[in-house]
Amino acid sequence: MQEHLKQLLFRLLSQPTAPFREQRVIALATAALKEAGAPFFADPAGNLVVGARSKTDMLRLLRETAQEPLRVFIAHMDHPGFHGVRWTKPGVLRVQWHGGSPVRHLQGSRVWLANNDGFETAGVMRAVRLKKHGGAIDTAEVHVADALPRPRPQAKTLYGGFDFRKPVWTSGSRLYTRAADDLVGVFCILATALEIFTKPAKARPPFLGLLTRAEEVGFIGALAHFELGWLQQARRPLVCVSLEASRTLPGALVGKGPIVRLGDRRTPFDAAYSQVLTRLAEEILPERHQRRIMDGGSCEGSAATAYGFPAIALAVPLGNYHNQGLEGGPGCRGRLGPAPEFVHLDDIEGQYQLCLALMRKGLPWQDPWLDVRERLQKNLRDYRALL
Question: What phi and psi, each to the nearest 5 degrees, are found at residue 295?
Fold first, then answer.
């Protein structure tokens, strides 16, 4: 990976984020896009739209007469975490958790806290209560480790998540971090946009990026964007490309390459467009990609499908999904206890390369099964005499 892209990746993974508290990620993304001169704007829900300068500009792109589909890359900027509720006593913050989480070894676990004004500190989690279904944290107390400034930050401006030795570090080619899901996908969209828009082009590229909010509590940012009705005004074909960091599963392992995600827990994805993606992966990442229905969770490809948009998906295999100690490793407090997520740098690079490849002109979008059909027809000719 080029050094400037690696620096962008590490800076993204160091940003504090939680559902509905993505502003620090947004600030870094917009700064990178501004520096490159890439177009972007915020939609009414606060999602970041990359590749257009305004709603009007986006609708102009959607309404172009073109045979090639507009590629709409989607990734979310949040990660499970907590919001401050109230100070119960000096240095003790009552918090509400949002999204999935570890469910064991929680008492005394390290957490970080931040707000959007640049404040950051650390603490430990106490008095943890799980949700009724037992699958995630509901509420807890955070005991702040350091002395708070005066006046202390308002409780409801604070948010946080599990803390480890660093926000991000590497061990060989393995990358450990507080939140790979889904800042890795955000990185791939930004890196693709920086590549596309820093080079002169004769025609406008068929690219949009949608960096969404609050995916971890039910695709809220993506749904709010789809409800605007802008994508429904397209006069050209479009394909939504979901980018995720997805829980490692048999046949989808960390370090074995990015995954052509054929579907998630809710639905398979578009078969024809997935064939285009499969062919690309076979061409540019032979023996260095994986292909699987990733049914360990759902992604924004399902949300796009529910709104009638054809969807395909890529995923980087993810260890210790949602900071749960599923695979263990450094910083893990025990099975199903807090642990840093981990991914592989080569998998991220491969996903980025596939995003760039999807932007090629002349891909067989109109008839992706032509070569398969021709092979089948040859079989028919060879055996017709025996019918």
Answer: -95, 20
- Helix 271-284 to helix 345-358 angle (10° resolution) is 120
Identity at 333, one-letter amino acid code: R
* Helical residues (DSSP H) of 43-178, grouped into ranges: 55-62
Alpha carbon distance 16, 167 (integer Å): 9
pLDDT tens figures, 20-45: 999 999 999 999 999 999 999 999 99
Question: How does strand 238-247 pair with strand 311-318?
Answer: parallel
Quote the longest CA-to-CA distance of the chain. Answer: 89
DSSP H or E stretch at residue 9: helix 3-13
DSSP H/E element including 295: none
pTM of the model: 0.96
Distance of alpha carbon 170 from alpha carbon 12, whole angstroms? 15
Sign of the torsion formed by the C-alpha atoms of 217, 258, 112 and 190: negative
